Amino acid sequence: xxxxxxxxxxxxxxxxxxxxxxxxxxxxxxxxxxxxxxxxxxxxxxxxxxxxxxxxxxxxxxxxxxxxxxxxxxxxxxxxxxxxxxxxxxxxxxxxxxxxxxxxxxxxxxxxxxxxxxxxxxxxxxxxxxxxxxxxxxxxxxxxxxxxxxxxxxxxxxxxxxxxxxxxxxxxxxxxxxxxxxxxxxxxxxxxxxxxxxxxxxxxxxxxxxxxxxxx
Length: 216
What we know:
alpha/beta
């Protein structure tokens, strides 16, 4: 049984949360985590790069000069790929970089990423996180009370406009909702701060996935 300390906004102890060891995975899932992260980042690619082939470059089929008699290499048309301004051979065209990941693989990747945070003591649990005003310094004061420095992922049980406004101009802080947290986010940030209510959702997501369907 893994025990995570719970603190309040001032950094004082507020109890403990227990997580069953059979829900945590540390001996496997590394490849699943890699596959899910690669698929996630591939899906972020726009895939809009496009070049023109020789058939798409504007121009006539008129020869630029006579085939013989001028001492030049023969040339058939100005759209040739060997000419400046001509077509591109095997150039990029709009495409989708999306990769499919099986639901069980995605769920295993989440369990591995979450388990690594627990094992590395990089997961902090707050009793609750509420802001009286949407000010950045208020949010920073709470994180400072938890002795948190650097990049951090804040996980809430539901979206909070004040917290998002307070964190939006801090490049090292990302706010997410527990039901939508991706394994890549857990892997990317060295520290994860989750509210007690959000932890209930995260722990529920550790349950083994059912067969069938895709999650990504």
